[in-house]
Design goal:
It is a single chain. By secondary structure, the chain is mainly α. The protein is built from 14 helices and no strands. The longest helix is centred in the N-terminal third of the chain and has 27 residues. The protein is globular and about 50 Å long. The two termini are 23 Å apart.
Length: 306
């Protein structure tokens, strides 16, 4: 763990501002708390796709005052292509994420997200021109090694059989899709601004989340009936976490490479393990913490690829 903090200090010495530090801290904390609220909602018989839609729809309502102030006609066609592509993979990825959280332990699924930095690093080669060196390769190796300790807490242990578990499959789908989404978000930010990127993120994710409700034949009347009054505060907390998480993500993407930002975001894995134990009494916490620490070391090492 001291090694992780040492590496983090090196990163902050390279590109530190107080605002960026606050944005990273908010992103690291808001993501696992959002997972807790998502799990609580799905545990009360709310469909994961419905939870996904309500979150994005509520954020879109809050963004209504902003579109009139944005010069939409000034954006090139490629901007809208990125918006549509990002909204599509983002909505589907978040749907899979909530489905994974519904079926699995947060203390297991949160740390596995460290693989996203590997995926984004590999995707960043052709799409963003960001090439890894020895640090990046070593970081990927540590992430794989750390995942051994986490997956070893399952009955199937660290084996190909793990991939047959629904929560692992859904988490992998979500990880791949949201890693691709991160690339599109970065492109949108480069063509506009973090604020505009946030607005289009809300609207396009809400649009595609709504489409997925019909594609997967979600019973909307049933979901509205299940949406008890006691769930409203949880939805409000979830929306708050989603908004804070994405605004912090956009700011981070605007001020540092995607690979750097995603690697630092993996510090939320430790928070996920703690929240999994605190809220849901999940087991094998010590082994998961060890694996998470190793994976975070790998993720932070990837940041040193420049």
């Amino acid at each position: 763990m001291p090694n992780v903090l040492f590496l983090l200090c090196l990163i902050l010495q390279k590109s530190f501002t107080m605002t960026l530090f606050i944005a990273l801290l908010l992103r690291i904390l808001s993501n696992p708390f959002a997972n807790v609220f998502q799990k609580k909602l799905t545990a009360s018989r709310q469909n994961p796709l419905w939870v996904n839609f309500v979150g994005f729809f509520t954020l879109s309502i809050l963004c209504i005052p902003f579109p009139g102030k944005i010069p939409w006609s000034s954006f090139a066609p490629i901007f809208w292509i990125y918006c549509v592509a990002g909204g599509l993979v983002g909505a589907l990825g978040n749907g899979y994420l909530i489905k994974a959280v519904e079926k699995g332990d947060i203390s297991l699924l949160g740390p596995i997200n460290s693989y996203k930095s590997v995926v984004s690093l590999l995707l960043g080669i052709p799409l963003l021109g960001e090439f890894p060196n020895l640090w990046g390769v070593l970081g990927m190796g540590l992430i794989i090694y750390g995942s051994y300790f986490i997956l070893d807490t399952l009955p199937e242990r660290f084996s190909w059989q793990v991939l047959k578990r629904p929560e692992i499959k859904f988490r992998i789908y979500a990880m791949l899709l949201t890693a691709i989404e991160a690339i599109f978000i970065k492109k949108i930010i480069l063509l506009s601004s973090p604020t505009i990127s946030f607005v289009v993120w809300c609207f396009f994710n809400a649009l595609f989340s709504f489409c997925f409700l019909f594609l997967y034949r979600v019973d909307l009347k049933k979901q509205l009936k299940v949406m008890y009054k006691r769930n409203i505060p949880i939805y409000l907390a979830l929306v708050s976490c989603m908004g804070i998480m994405q605004m912090a993500t956009n700011y981070s993407f605007a001020h540092m490479p995607v690979g750097y930002a995603l690697a630092l975001f993996q510090l939320s894995g430790i928070v996920s393990v703690g929240l999994g134990y605190a809220f849901f009494k999940e087991r094998n916490i010590r082994k998961k913490l060890l694996g998470t620490a190793i994976m975070i070391m790998g993720a932070v090492l990837i940041i040193l690829l420049e």
